[in-house]
Amino acid sequence: MKALYIASTGMSAQERNVEVISNNIANMRTTGFKRQRAEFQDLLYQQIRRAGSQTSDEGTMLPAGLEIGSGVRTVATPRIMSQGSVVATEKELDLAVRGEGFFVVEMPDGTAAYTRDGAFERDDQGRLVNSSGYPVQPGITIPQDAVSVSVSADGLVQAYIGNDAFPTQLGQLQLARFVNKAGLASIGDNLFNATAASGEAQIGLPKANGTGDLLQGYLEQANVNSVTEIADLIAAQRAYEMNARVISGADEMLRSATQMS
Q: Which residue, 58, 55, 21, is CA-closest to 38?
């Protein structure tokens, strides 16, 4: 009975849906995390009677066809790239992007990766790095005797060094934009890689060309809404239960048919 296999695809799809929801909930406190959602498509249909086919020699046609679907499948888990809320941390190297841009970091193999996580630190050489130790690009080095570091909304990094009366410019932060942010590939550690779907990174200055501005002493929180996720989880659980009931019902029908034979 096809109903068994159709319902099984529904259960499999809802299992994947719950996995996506659980990952969102697990990352509710992850800086700069962007939630995902599962998207589904129906499978192929068996055409038993095709709509528009002729039903008599006089040319009458079927106004509606008879077709049986094969179930459902998960086709994508796009990220929702909406802005997360920003919270004050009072840490001078914490930065939040208010807009479309991504920070650029250099990976150990020399390639670029992109992140919304602006929890930066200084390494043993004074370089500005992310929490995994990857240098922020373009490279910025903060001297050991820097008294304070300031980052303007347009990415200009300055510091008072020693007893200097005026700040010294240390560098200029840049941000990356993408035509299709949802096409970025997640690689873990709050990092993304560009793909053919996302398009090449468009590097620019903060506050220019829609990249957004920077907030020093703030971090962007995950854009996960706990109420929404719980509601989605309940809906997924109910859909799973209904598909399980279909399997139980189909099994009872097969048992009845077997007993009649």
A: 21
Strand locations in 24-155, DSSP E?
39-42, 45-49, 66-69, 72-76, 86-88, 95-98, 102-106, 112-115, 121-122, 128-129, 136-137, 146-151
Helices (H), the chain: 2-26, 226-260
Whole-angstrom Cα distance, residue 91 to residue 151? 12
pLDDT tens sequence across 41-69: 998 888 877 777 777 777 787 788 788 88
Q: What is the pLDDT of residues 8-45, one digit of tens each?
A: 999 999 999 999 999 999 999 999 999 999 999 998 88
Residue 138: cis peptide before it, omega within 30 degrees of 0? yes
**Sequence ranges of the domains in the chain:** 2-50+61-80+249-260, 86-220
